[in-house]
Amino acid sequence: MKQRIAIVGLGLIGGSLARRLVNAGCEVVAWNHNDRPYETAEADGIRCVPTLAVLADAKPDVLVLCNPLKAMPQILGALKPLIDPSVTTLTDVGSVKEMVREQVRAVGLEHCYVGAHPMAGNELSGWESSDPTLYDGALWAITVDENTEYQRFRAVATMIVDHCANRLIVLDDTTHDRCAALISHMPHVISTAMINELVANPNRNIAAALAAGSWRDMTRVALTDPNRTRAMVEEDAANVEALLRNMANRLTLMANVLHGMAAQQGAPTAGDDKEMARFFVQGQPFREYKALTKEPDFAEHCETIELAIPETGWQQMLLESARRGEHIVRFDGYRQAMAQVRSSV
């Protein structure tokens, strides 16, 4: 049975999700802070409504908050008297989860909330950039706590696995935010620092002319709307700070080694040679993992594991599954899931 899904916010992420769900046969109703996307969205099969009250009156199975995080308190406050928790499970697509759960708790909707974060996106924004294929092959992180009801988790998981045809892992908020800082928020800062370095360089025009594949790949996310990037980084400030200090230490160590080599006219000391070798080989397990994922039949050769999800302690059980690199790819029963080992580094 197809779900009825409500979407708040028809930007890049929300618009792409709405269009993908419509393509999967779901009934999708959406509200946006302005009606500019409505004409084309309705042509795509999305029912657009003028107010959050009308959206809530549709009694969706899942209501997905795709609005900017800075608008979350206002949106949650408006939805509180409107949403019917006996019918609707609330979720979101924000890139930080602890802050959102606190905001949900502040308005008293935590009992019907499950966090979610699709690992999909690009440097573009707005409805005009939305594309249902944005979610092709995507992994979602679902975040839960000890009070999350299993039926709420399954409502969101069904949307992800059955209708989006995506994979999922289950995390707690803290683990999610630390990992999101590592693989997204911190790299956005590094990428931005790189283009700042180029712009500040007196030879920037020559450097820009010489820039090719490696520069393109390392600076793609720096092309994102800087206000959007700044907001994302500020919302996960403590985790990003810790990672940037770690990165600064790594880069300073390399700079010191290179300084020593320059002083020795390219002949490193034994200690510098050891540090140089360690720096460039430490990440080899990740190189090998990425090489495997590029094989055309990678998914077919991933080990498949059946997960029997218990009635109690299921949150921790699924977190440990994620730590083993297992991604849920389908459900064969209410508490039976099939997972593939997809990210074992």
Automatic annotation (TrEMBL):
GO terms for biological process: tyrosine biosynthetic process. Residues 3-298 form the Prephenate/arogenate dehydrogenase domain. It comes from the Bacteria. Keywords: Oxidoreductase. This is Prephenate dehydrogenase/arogenate dehydrogenase family protein. It comes from Bifidobacterium catenulatum. PROSITE patterns: PDH_ADH (PS51176). One of its GO terms (molecular function) is prephenate dehydrogenase (NAD+) activity. InterPro entries: 6-PGluconate_DH-like_C_sf, NAD(P)-bd_dom_sf, PDH_C, PDH_N, Preph/Arog_dehydrog, Prephen_DH. Belongs to the prephenate/arogenate dehydrogenase family.
